[in-house]
Amino acid sequence: MRITVAHSRYRSAAPSGENRVVDQETAALTALGHDVELFERRSDDIEGWPTARKAALPAAVVWNGGVRRDLREMLRSSRPDVVHVHNTFPLLSASVLYACRDAGVPVVATLHNYKLACASGDFFRGGRLCHDCATGVPVAAMWHGCYRGSRAATAPVALAAVAHRRAWRTMVAAYACISVSQRDLLREVGLPADRVFVRHNMIPARTVVQAAPRPEVIYAGRLDAAKGVPVLMAGWDRYLSLAGSPGMSLVIAGSGPLEDEVRAWSAARPSVRFAGQLDPGACAAAMAAARAVVLPSAWEETFGLAAVEAMALGVAPVAAGHGAFTELITDGVDGVLFRPSDPAALAAVLELADKNKHKFEEYGRQARKAYEHRFDPAESLRRLLAIYQYAIEHPI
Question: Which of 254, 352, 362, 371 is an S-S bond match for 311, by CB 3.0 to 4.6 Å?
Fold first, then answer.
């Protein structure tokens, strides 16, 4: 099959799960013998743009005529069977949909976040969940300046959502939501239900040098409020007060807007080690050696790559009990779910992990079995190819 993958890459300074998914799927499809061609724009390049081009970026978020032209020419030359659209913000825009229509190539769109209905893409504002724009009408987003805390920055995002709402509903042959939870939260956007599929992200099995398990738990992810980092810190402090003499340590790996705060907080606590941003191999090795991987997300995660990566490594995930986590993790079998945004609930699970090493080892064994049964990479690819085939057989 000939496949064109369209993706606007996030900055490499803030490693993105979406980038990883695109890279992993592309490599896997190529390894199966499919002809995969990339159409990408990179946010890293923005820094080197001249001032005038940077000033024009907000307009390009709404409509990028150059992208439409370039992709249309590529498609007319290569004649792929299908175009797989991933992230379009900020460097592609909905122009990619029009280019595919011009060239007569069906589109499969993976919806990685809530961007079709939420300017910030996460249904999270002011430290709490927010579904004010769930229908895709971003009035509240404009009022609150939800993207980067700025009305000016939010304006092009909101305008793009309104201007291209019909295109997203009518120019995509098949939509791939990455969890049932995400599909349900996007229901009010009005995507045609018969073209919406649920397919979990493909998580390849990773081979690591298995270190002896250590009495520690690890958080690996972006350091921001939506990911629940304030809940993690408050929960750990409560665990310390309960434990008296803690039997575990906490490793924090990642970077993000709360990095300075996390670094200072960690330095004041001997039981916490701040590892900073780790490369994928080092992060996997650190996760494999832990008793549990903690995922305290305050937003309703559309998937949660780290949860399934932990399961693939045979390590128990401990996650907030909402969003996709409730369908990825079976509470008390292959991991533990706790009440979202509740430091006391997280502390209780941490104390359980401290006192019940063997229970968490069993959770880890069951997590690996769940990964093999429910998240098999080969089955994930078969599912993706079936969605491609549907789009080819049912074009718009």
Answer: 371
Question: Where would I find the H helices in 189-291?
Answer: 229-243, 259-267, 280-288
- Token look-up 């074009």 returns 395
Comparing CA positions, the residue from 152, 122, 61, 155 lying closest to residue 324 is: 122
Distances (CA, A) of 320 to 92, 227, 300, 324: 33, 10, 9, 10
Closest CA to 206 of 294, 287, 318: 287
Contact 119, 157 (CB under 8 A): yes
Cβ-Cβ contacts under 8 Å for 228 (sequence gap 6 or more): 295, 296, 297, 298, 320, 340, 341
pLDDT in tens, 43-63: 999 999 999 999 999 999 999
CA angle 258, 18, 117 (to 5 degrees): 85
Q: Cβ(46)–Cβ(58) under 8 Å?
A: no
Tell me the average pLDDT across 288-296: 97
Q: What is the mean pLDDT of residues 309-313?
A: 96
**Can you list the domains of the chain with their CATH numbers?**
2-203+377-393 (3.40.50.2000), 216-374 (3.40.50.2000)
